[in-house]
Amino acid sequence: MRWGVVVFPGSNDDQDTLWAIEQVLGEPVVRLWHKDADLHGVDVVVLPGGFSYGDYLRCGAMARFSPIMDKVIEFAGRGGLVWGICNGFQVLCEAGLLPGALVRNRDRRFVCAMSYVRVEDNDTPFTRLCRRGEVLRIPIKHGEGCYVADATTLELLERNRQVLLRYVDANGRATSEANPNGSLDNIAGIVNESRNVFGLMPHPEHAVEKWMGSDDGLKFFQSVLAAQRNPGTTDRTAVAPGH
Amino acid sequence: MNWENMVRPVDEYHAIEHGLTPEEFERLCGALGRAPNLVELGVVSVMWSEHCSYKSSRVHLRKLPSTGPRVLQGPGENAGVIDIGDGLAVAFKIESHNHPSYVEPYQGAATGVGGILRDVFTMGARPIAILDSLRFGSFDHPRTRYLVDGVVAGIGGYGNCVGVPTVGGETYFDAGYNANILVNAFTLGVLPANRIFRARAAGVGNPVMYVGSKTGRDGIHGASLLASAEFRGEAEEKRPTVQVGDPFTEKLLLEACLELMEEDVIVAIQDMGAAGLTSSSVEMAARGHTGIWLDLDQVPTRARGMTPYEILLSESQERMLLVARAGCEDRVRDIFAKWDLEAVVVGQVTDDGLFRASYAGREVACLPIALLTDEAPVYERPARPPSDLDVRQQLRLDRIPQPQDWNEVLLRLLDSPNLASKAWIYRQYDCLVRGNTVVGPGSDAAVLRIKGTDKGLVLSVDCNSRYCLQDPYVGAVIAVAEAARNVVCAGGEPIGVTDCLNFGSPEKPEVMWQFVEAIQGIRDACLALQLPVVSGNVSFYNETEGHSIPPTPTIAMVGLLQPVRAFTTQWFKSEGDVIALLGQTREELGASEYLAVIHGQVAGVPPWIDLAVERKVQEVCLRAIREGLLASAHDVSEGGLAVALAECCVTHPEAPLGAVVELPASMRIDALLFGESQSRIVVSLKRRNWPRLRDLAQQLGVPCAMLGEVRGRRLVVHPWIDLECATLREVWANALPRRMEMAESRGEDRTQ
């Protein structure tokens, strides 16, 4: 399958996402320039982390209006897989592809740290190789990662099993101390109702090599690959490699 | 002022206003054969400022060793460059942004990071790591929390947005910095060894091009004035002289420059840093022995009606000046346009050896390049030791009572902001972006991999300014030795140094003496450890209301680690591992953290150091790591052996491991536990590796003692210390957050 990574001016983790896909996963990947109104036939689009356009206005607010985003929205509408990481998640919320918003962290400070997230649902192309309840070690690094949404939206997210990841402690408990940014209900990642658009604040592309700290992030990449090869329903018994 | 008045000759009064001495003004008029006009005076005043001319330090800096088989570029360029083999090189430098950060902590620190990044990518290197060395006042001082908060946010705000990881650093708190903090930023980049870009103008007729942000009125005389005179408590009024950073534009500039550098269009390139357009153009011409002509009407400006004086002296950020090959102007414009940046021809390389600038069709400045650079004033200022040095260096140990409760002493030391966890600070920095970080902040040194190779880079920055205050020579020797030791503890072989020399006013003989002694110390240590100093920065006038800061010669060390997977960290790894100490403990407490925290004294001389011994200890550790013998290695520094052991227990990123050790009571217990004897490393290893380590140490004549083993969840130093690791960790981890959060309930600190 062909992966595409969008490069906005100010994207930073584009390099790392490309590395994960190309060097670690060994899959073909193309850079999609923000001024380009063409997805070049990719099967999955990744919006990487960084500070698109400097994020001086509101995170993701400018990137949403770049020429490539019209194509991404169209692609998502046709059921194409779209995956936003950190700033990419913020862009997806600004673009209306995912509900809710990401605002300043609870303590108003940027936070870079290893975090634990619990996989809440594996019935998506992004998490199908994870076990439900599995705890992953993946770093976070953001200043505006506090997920907020109105009560109705939160209720819908829960009812439709759209919350895919929650911040937890090492033992898998979603406590307030384990919540690094004040996100409502410890939400770290969500999927849209059609389950083809995924956004998360943690950085799986920074957890792809065990000797450098963790390779838990690989599971999302491998899930997407598996989903592409076998688009059937999730194998709920699947146990992710590496654990 | 009407700009036309600026081309009239000025007198001595104006010159003194610009920071020149009457003698310097006389010299200037003599060399020109006339009085300069105001524009020219502005140019001369910045080029002759301490910051740009190094007039007080130049004669001494020459003593530092700067050559070696790996050195591709020594001091004198935007950054030093060292060969790391297989066609690759690293460019690095450290620089201060002290006064701006005191005046406006967020922007001061942010633009400090921006400036050092440009210095490195100007060389053609992709920046891959930032380190910061910070010095703040005591937490008792009302401005400290505000400054810590702003500086840390500023470093993070800039580095995070540009997408270069901040992977390490150091932070100290001392009342000596209450009114003059230090913000020293280091950047390292990687480049092909045969593609180094330099700032040497060449090729008469080649176009001089201006790229990046427009020129505004911000920061006029910023670096040159702020950094070249002492404060008189007017921090607030000087805020307009601090520049404002735009990391997004920097990111675009970085990408555009690196893309341009892949083609053969650039002859020379230099960052517009301190003294902006003036220093970048003058220095490029000076290095290339050419002249340079600037058409100021072409310079993109942000504000209307900017005078030639303002255009030449603005320190607006995120700007570069480059000399392109004639005929390549469009290629430069195209690449910058791709990144939505301007690139404009603003002048030409000439052969007349002059700096000339035109405005509105009229020549507004005409000065010999040599007069602005090589022939700028150089001073060998008088130096003499402070009269109370002998008194300060005295320490009567028999008058220092030994405490009863050693557990309490250890906890109080771990609660000292100087020894406590700095996670509150470094959690605000992205230490991961670009995916090379093998070991981030929180160990002795940072380790980065270089993709596509099996090489790793090991980075550390160090200085104990209390040692330097008590004896600047020994303090500087220790700064170099410890920075190298930290690199060795991570498995790296030290290969190069950059230094940031922060001192008070060079016009005071006592400060000059500290400076000269420190240079000698760096020189001797670098010679002994065979390390070249390839770049650096001098920051004088770190004074407020007549008080100098403690002398602070910050040393940043770069090491090479191959294969990178052989890296080592400081924390204990497994139950049952043997704990051993390399090096010898002496009965010495002078200038220690223990003496300061527990007894409220800064007295005595720094620990004894013998560079031959230091070298051997480092060699044993490095060989042991290369042979795969060690599970952990940790330098023993401030707080001594007990604090080092506690750190080995609590710094494990997941689960702290305990230790049970026994120390022979061969001296005063406080010196044994908390003395800061140099050239010591705590290591842990599998029991089966112990005989080999002992043999290695014996071969090189390095003392090596088994202290105990990694065991349980308590730190037991028999028979004096017995504490839960959880307790140690809590005290150590909360010391900074507790003090910083006190500020948040006191709103007045944040609005100062």
General description of the model:
The complex is a heterodimer of chains A (243) and B (752). By secondary structure, chain A is an alpha/beta fold. Chain A has a single domain, classed as Rossmann fold (3-Layer(aba) Sandwich), CATH 3.40.50.880. Chain A has helices at residues 14-25, 67-77, 87-94, 151-159, 218-229; strands at 3-7, 29-33, 44-47, 81-85, 101-103, 111-119, 135-142, 146-148, 163-168, 187-191, 197-200. In chain A, strands 2-1-3-4-11-10-9-6-7 form a 9-stranded mixed sheet, with helices on both faces. The longest helix of chain A has 12 residues, at 14-25. The two termini of chain A are 26 Å apart. Chain B is an alpha+beta fold. Chain B has 27 helices and 28 strands. In chain B, the strands form 5 sheets. In chain B, strands 8-10-7-11-9-12-13 form a 7-stranded mixed sheet. In chain B, strand 14 (437-439) and strand 15 (446-449) form a beta hairpin. In chain B, helix 10 packs across helix 13 (329-338). The longest helix of chain B is centred in the last third of the chain and has 20 residues, at 509-528. Chain B is globular. The two termini of chain B are 32 Å apart. Mean pLDDT of chain B is 94; it is low at 745-752. The chains are: A alpha/beta (243), B alpha+beta (752). Chain A binds chain B through residues 9-10, 12-13, 15-16, 19-20, 23, 49-51, 53-56, 109-114, 139, 141, 143, 170, 203, 205-206, 211-212, and chain B through 153, 156-157, 160-163, 246-249, 251-252, 339-340, 426-435, 437-438, 449, 451, 565, 653-654.
